[in-house]
Design a protein that fits this description.
The chain is an all-alpha fold. The protein is built from 12 helices and no strands.
């Protein structure tokens, strides 16, 4: 996994355009649907609970950054701890792109010995597969909750979700050899996942557990009585649903699913929307803002090149 590859031109203008459109659409949606609760919602960001939730989200970024740094080292690109985390954060600038594909630019942006497109896409694919595995595990309490509702629709949703996951897993396992032969980036992603699997699994699991705990704290702070596993599960289901929509960072899809689940659980529409806004500000837009700062700084010291 140390094969050198020629540098690839980064489609910076396209990435920034998508980022700007996604941020604008999100701001307009908040302005239209937030009504009179916007100020109170934003004020909760600077509360003790808001700061605790932000710290947990930062822990998520840190642990996933360590995972990315480990896979970069497997490609012969060892990075210092702070350097690796800074470059990883810089990639979050491009998270609001369809399927989060903009994050695949992390390896392409390196000014010194950048990865090739296939290699960078391989690490991105490994990240998404690892994240999906842990998010699906976090979804299990929601399936149990749906069954416990003892309603036909809830049963159908739980069974349909389970069959969908099992079907996708069976298809991949059955055709994995053909897929790995035809798709070089998927083959390389598989090699990434074979690199110290216990380490990346632990990092990924704790990272998403921290983010789930942050969601639970925000729910409790908003006055919603909900268990920690259930709150984390709602967030995981919403993240998977948003990813399946292939919209930039799941914008719209993720919010709709999370708000809907919270309302079904018993939250009012305003309460559910307020929680969802806080969750997205801390789990998405905080990362984008930190990523933009890291990107500008890294470009200023010539660690990142946009050629």
């Amino acid at each position: 996994m140390t094969q050198e590859a020629p540098p690839t031109r980064l489609p910076l203008k396209s990435l920034l355009l998508v980022l700007g459109l996604a941020a604008t659409a999100y701001a307009v949606a908040l302005a239209v649907f937030g009504e009179g609760h916007r100020l109170a919602t934003l004020q909760r960001l600077v509360s003790v609970v808001g700061l605790q939730a932000a710290a947990l989200c930062l822990l998520n970024y840190l642990l996933r950054g360590l995972r990315w740094r480990m896979w970069m080292a497997a490609y012969g690109r060892p990075l210092g701890l702070l350097e690796g985390l800074r470059l990883y954060l810089a990639g979050y600038t491009f998270t609001p792109t369809p399927g989060n594909i903009g994050e695949a630019a992390r390896g392409l942006m390196l000014a010194h010995r950048p990865l090739g497109a296939a290699q960078s896409l391989a690490i991105f694919g490994a990240e998404r597969l690892a994240d999906l595995l842990c998010l699906l595990l976090m979804c299990l309490p929601v399936a149990w909750w749906l069954v416990a509702l003892n309603e036909p629709l809830a049963w159908r949703l739980a069974v349909l979700g389970g069959l969908l996951v099992l079907g996708m897993g069976a298809l991949f396992w059955g055709f994995r050899r053909r897929l790995l032969v035809r798709l070089s980036w998927l083959r390389d992603a598989w090699h990434c996942l074979a690199t110290r699997p216990a380490v990346w699994l632990a990092l990924t699991g704790v990272a998403w557990a921290a983010q789930g705990l942050a969601v639970w704290l925000l729910c409790r702070d908003a006055g919603l009585s909900i268990g920690m596993l259930q709150a984390a599960g709602f967030y995981a289901v919403a993240m998977v649903g948003g990813a399946l929509s292939l919209l930039p960072a799941g914008l719209g899809g993720m919010e709709a699913v999370l708000t809907g689940l919270l309302v079904v659980h018993g939250a009012s529409a305003a309460q559910a929307l307020g929680i969802t806004v806080l969750v997205r500000l801390l789990t998405l837009w905080l990362a984008v803002a930190l990523g933009a700062l890291a990107l500008v700084y890294s470009a200023a010291i010539r660690d990142i090149s946009f050629r």
